[in-house]
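Dear H.,

Thanks for agreeing to be a second pair of eyes. The structure we're designing against is below in token form, covering all 212 positions.
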């Protein structure tokens, strides 16, 4: 008997690629279960060992980093202290730069103080206090020439009202000296006290000259 398939080529049933394979030779009972189980257990043990090793390495690395951090902590504190000192020095250098750049002339003002001295007055100390004076505002549209104040400490001959009058004349002379007073917003007497120097009656005084 001859069979002829008249269907087009693309509609014909194609033979299965597994048609010639005999699956009867394969059996689950013949699989090597023990070797496979042993291999799986071995792989699991290997993975666990790797995880344990990575955890141990991480703990050791963390311990090492902690010891290194503790070792450098004192140096960090020392470095921070040096940085704070450096900032303070930079501020002082900036103030000196301002002086050198001509915003303020010590030589001019010392000469002006000398010119303002009145009879019976002498100075024992001149102190520059660089700390800004609270409540003092710079002129509108201008920054202060210098922060802080100049402190004059000195003596006047005589006692009581006589010495106080000499101090008053000295302060008036300072205020009348435009070369000196142009750099200051206030020149105030802040302390007067009767004393004896080498057995002579004198009046000690303290004058604050606050920079503009």
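And this is the sequence the design step returned. I haven't edited it by hand at all.
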């Amino acid at each position: 008997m001859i069979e002829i398939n008249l269907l087009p080529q693309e509609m014909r049933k194609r033979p299965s690629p597994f048609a010639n394979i005999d699956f009867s030779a394969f059996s689950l009972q013949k699989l090597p279960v023990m070797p496979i189980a042993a291999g799986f257990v071995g792989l699991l043990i290997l993975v666990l060992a790797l995880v344990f090793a990575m955890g141990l390495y991480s703990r050791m690395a963390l311990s090492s980093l902690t010891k290194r951090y503790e070792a450098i902590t004192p140096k960090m504190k020392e470095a921070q202290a040096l940085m704070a000192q450096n900032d303070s020095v930079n501020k002082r250098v900036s103030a000196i730069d301002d002086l050198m750049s001509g915003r303020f002339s010590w030589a001019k003002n010392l000469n002006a103080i000398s010119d303002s001295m009145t009879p019976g007055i002498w100075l024992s100390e001149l102190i520059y206090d660089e700390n800004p004076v609270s409540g003092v505002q710079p002129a509108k549209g201008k920054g202060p020439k210098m922060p802080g104040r100049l402190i004059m400490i000195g003596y006047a001959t005589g006692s009581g009202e006589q010495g106080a009058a000499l101090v008053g004349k000295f302060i008036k002379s300072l205020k009348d000296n435009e070369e000196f007073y142009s750099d200051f917003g206030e020149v105030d007497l802040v302390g007067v006290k009767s004393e004896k120097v080498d057995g002579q009656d004198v009046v000690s005084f303290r004058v604050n000259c606050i920079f503009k």
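Two observations from my side: Residues 35 and 41 are 10 Å apart (CA to CA). The beta strands are 121-129, 149-157, 184-197, 200-211.

Warmly,
E.
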